[in-house]
Design brief:
- The structure holds 2 protein chains of 2 kinds.
- Helix content of chain A is 71%, strand content 2%.
- Chain A has a two-stranded antiparallel sheet.
- Chain A starts with a helix and ends with a strand.
- The model of chain A has no long low-confidence stretch (mean pLDDT 96).
- Chain B is mostly helical.
- The model of chain B has no long low-confidence stretch (mean pLDDT 72).
- Classes of the chains: A mainly alpha, B mainly alpha.
- Chain A: It is a multi-pass membrane protein.
- Chain A: It is found in: Endoplasmic reticulum membrane.
Chain lengths: 212, 10
């Protein structure tokens, strides 16, 4: 474990709970893409199948349980409890256009052609594009609530910190995973446009609105 | 095995 990965995991945890609290407190999921949340739930479920078979540490197992539970809870709040506030008119990204190619790629490019490894690879590839429905929804509505932009900033920062973690581990531990690094770069690059808007607007107290 | 052990990241 290193500081980049620890801060990255905590940033990820923060993002998930900021969103969960926003929906729970405001009793509304306006401006939030349910499709992205479904993809994140799929990412965690396919990645943490080894939760019971491959014990790494208490921290690792605890975080896996928290990530799965909180993301499933978010999907539940959005599609069941506060379904009336779900903005399906703007959450129109066709996620099958993500899941199918990512699934195919996971079969073709992976470290080991075993079910667990292919599912892990699928999860890594899917996570890199899972935020697209959310970014697409913001581009359609033209703006995002401030709390939603904080969620996105924390979520985008987590994988950027993981990139630093991989640089650190490469030099100090000789650890390198090309699939995770390439997917992590794609994932972080997708946030660049948002990071720019966040830093130039939200940081100065302005609302995040995309140039019309 | 070694590969599986390597999966120590979230």
């Amino acid at each position: 474990m290193n500081i980049f990965r620890l801060v990255g995991d905590l940033s990820h945890l923060l993002a998930i709970f900021v969103l969960l609290l926003k929906i729970w407190k405001s009793r509304s999921c306006a401006g939030v893409s349910g499709k992205s949340q479904i993809l994140f739930a799929l990412v965690f479920i396919t990645r943490y199948l080894d939760l019971f078979t491959n014990f790494i540490s208490v921290y690792n197992s605890l975080m896996k349980v928290i990530f799965i539970a909180s993301t499933v809870a978010t999907v539940y709040l959005m599609y069941i409890k506060f379904k009336a506030t779900y903005d399906s008119n703007h959450d129109t990204f066709r996620i099958e256009f993500l899941v199918v190619p990512v699934g195919g790629l996971a079969f073709l490019v992976n470290h080991d052609f075993t079910p667990l490894e292919i599912l892990w690879t699928f999860s890594i590839y899917l996570e890199s594009v899972a935020i697209l429905p959310q970014l697409f929804m913001i581009s359609k509505t033209g703006e995002a609530e401030t709390i939603t932009s904080h969620y996105l900033f924390a979520l985008g920062s987590y994988r950027a910190l993981y990139l630093l973690n991989w640089i650190y581990r490469y030099y100090f531990e000789g650890y390198f995973d090309l699939i995770a690094v390439v997917a992590g770069c794609v994932q972080t690059i997708l946030y660049c446009d948002f990071f720019y808007l966040y830093i130039t607007k939200v940081m100065w107290g302005k609302k995040l609105s995309l140039p019309a | 095995d070694e590969k599986q052990k390597n999966k120590d990241e979230l």
